[in-house]
Amino acid sequence: MEQTEDRPVDQLGYEEARDELIDVVRVLEQGGLDLDASLALWERGEQLAKRCEEHLDGAHRRIEKALAQGQDAESDADSAPAGEAPF
Predict the structure, then answer these.
(1) CA angle 41, 17, 24 (to 5 degrees)
(2) What is the pTM (predicted TM-score) of this model?
(3) pLDDT higher than 80, residue 3
(4) How far apart are CA 71 and CA 65, in angstroms?
(5) Phi, psi dihedrals of residue 82, rounded to the nearest 5°
(6) How wide is the angle at C-alpha 26 spanned by C-alphas 13 and 14, nearest 5°?
(7) Alpha-carbon Rg of the chain, whole angstroms?
(8) pLDDT tens digits for 28-87?
(9) CA 77, CA 69: separation in Å to the nearest integer?
(10) Could you give the count of Cα atoms lying within 13 Å of 47 in the half-sphere of its Cβ?
(11) What CATH code would you report for 9-78?
């Protein structure tokens, strides 16, 4: 696995967390680990999945905000008197 496994999950960007999560799943699927190692790896995977969700939720909020601002600007332009600039 990559170097990110030593970093706290809350310091990982989306791509880093996703890539490490893929590695975790691959290792768990291969098997051969003892119970304690499997549980530790599974717990790390759960943290990584949660971190990915946090990043995706943040991106979703940013998109919604940008769309709402675009609709507000469009509404302002539609309500401007004829012949006047909306700004």
Answers:
(1) 30
(2) 0.74
(3) no
(4) 10
(5) -60, 135
(6) 10
(7) 22
(8) 999 999 999 999 999 999 999 999 999 999 999 999 999 998 887 777 776 656 555 554
(9) 12
(10) 17
(11) 1.10.287
